[in-house]
Amino acid sequence: MNRSSPARDGDTLGGLPIYPRKNIFGNPLLPVPVGNGPQTGFFRNNYCDASPADPASHTVAAVVTPEFLDFSKSRGNDLWPLFPSMRAAQSSSSSSSASSPSLSTSASPAPGPSPATSSPEPCIWCLCATRWFEAFRAAASHPLGDRIVPRVVLEATHERAPADGKFERAVLERWAVGGDGSGRLPERGGKAKGGGGGGGGGEAIGR
């Protein structure tokens, strides 16, 4: 099959079987809006494809943040080398904060997911369904709380993600954001638009 065409039962990609390319709504799976980030997906084609050859199920289109990357590294999966620009942005932000006076506020944080605090152009990564759910479960007892849980672009998340990760679809929906072709993170509640490259990629090197 063409790397950017819809998958059907019996299709293969790179010689490996692939499940039908549908998102969690049962609609055609959109490509991941990677922006300036690296190519993603088990097949590195910027789709969160599902395949029997990928038992880790890299099917959740997750917005990568420094907080999540630190959490993932603490659990034995260091993804930081894939996002050098984010590391540089984080270092620059830390330096600026250290030289500026801190401001106090009495406002209470709003319930639900905390705002993403990554680089100016967040990267979206096809994350393992179980890894995403691991972060979700760990948030309750983690010092950073909800900030370690990546938000999700639902239209680019494969329909098999909830079953493979053993969680309800409603859990993902609570963390939904929009996505567009530039890879920028829209305002919370925005709808995802089609975009991002669907081509390219090589052998299956999911991580």
TrEMBL record:
Q: Where is this region: Disordered?
A: 90-116, 180-207
Gene3D superfamilies xref list: Protein of unknown function DUF2237
Which segments show compositional bias classed as Gly residues? Answer: 192-207
InterPro entries to which the protein is assigned, alphabetical: DUF2237
Per the UniProt record, one Pfam family is DUF2237
Annotated protein name in UniProt: Uncharacterized protein
Originating organism: Rhodotorula diobovata
